[in-house]
Amino acid sequence: MAGPLAGMTVVDLTHVMAGPFCTHVLGLLGAEIIKIERPGEGDVFRHYDRRPEFVGMAPAFQTVNVGKKSITLDLKNPQAVQVVLDLIAKADILVENYRPGVLAKLGLGYEHAKAANPELIYCSLSGYGQTGPMRDNPAYDHIVQAVCGVMSLTGDPEGDIAKVGFPMIDTFTGYAGAFACLSAVLQRLRFGGGGRHLDVAMLDSSLILMISMIGPYLIAGDQPARVGNRGFNASPTAATFQASDGPLLLGANTQRQFEKMCAVLGCGELIADPRFADPNVRIDNEQALMAILHPLFAGRTAEAWELAFNAADVPAGAVRTVPQIADTPHVASRGLRAAFDLPGTDRQAATLNLGFDLGRPEGDRVAPPPTLGQHTDEILKGLGYDSARISALKAGGAV
Length: 399
What we know:
Helix content: 25-40%
Shape: elongated
Distance between the termini: 37 Å
Radius of gyration: 26 Å
Number of helices: 17
Strand content: 5-15%
Oligomer: single chain
């Protein structure tokens, strides 16, 4: 079965993470992605690694750019702008994540693109959106984590605030952008009406991601506080415990789960103890309960406890590193990896696929990420440019 976007073309004017992840998803769904990069340097994400074997092809870049085609164009050159407009005329979707207003100054804003292709879906990803008082503020993932409230909720209640340890908002904004593009494609197919401009902001996306916190505030004025590694219902037994080899997260939230937890730990007498008989009194007597429970966890490894608690239907998980979870048999069995040939080597590497199975014809393989400008001539020839015109573009510094 072909991917749902097979036969569609996406003009990719994105860089770093949020935008490239958006087009990465669209590519995994079957679209052809034409990535436009600056001559000589390309996407700055290409250079996020100093190891000699990854010069210009940092693993972080490769992860979200597999299967794309790269053309180099100097967007300050009017001839290069015309090339982009020619690409737009034949495209279905354009995704960009420049600061608001930058592409319009170059002659590639939505109105310019719409004139070249009225059916185009033009998706703009930015830090704070195309409108509003904060529109022009520069943004990185960790800055938006601070602004949106994520950092105020992350960390130990008695300690310092902390950012989430990976670019969560970049990634979710990319997903939101891909979802917006798919929604616009579906709307166009079902109801017509031509193209449209989609405005997807990191701040907006982060607030949607935080709906479990923002929603209760909007409805009831609730002001959430940091809970550290504890579950959100404040249960003392939905927390972190130290096993013999490392931390374990336990989720004994309900009375039934508490009783099963006690059975696994061999402390069934706690169930009848009036200090711990129900969730409310357990919160009141938390220190006494923790003094009893914490020593019990030292008797097994975190993974051994994980197996025991899960077998008893009590949610539990050992704290794993990225390599530990990436190499687990479970992840391997889920088909999450998509293999590709590592450019410039005879080795294979892998990235992650969509996370759901649409029966992609190539299965668990993807085309490798492009070297800078690898497909420039191919793309220009596809637009009908002859060799003389391509040579003139190169001579004039447009490509």
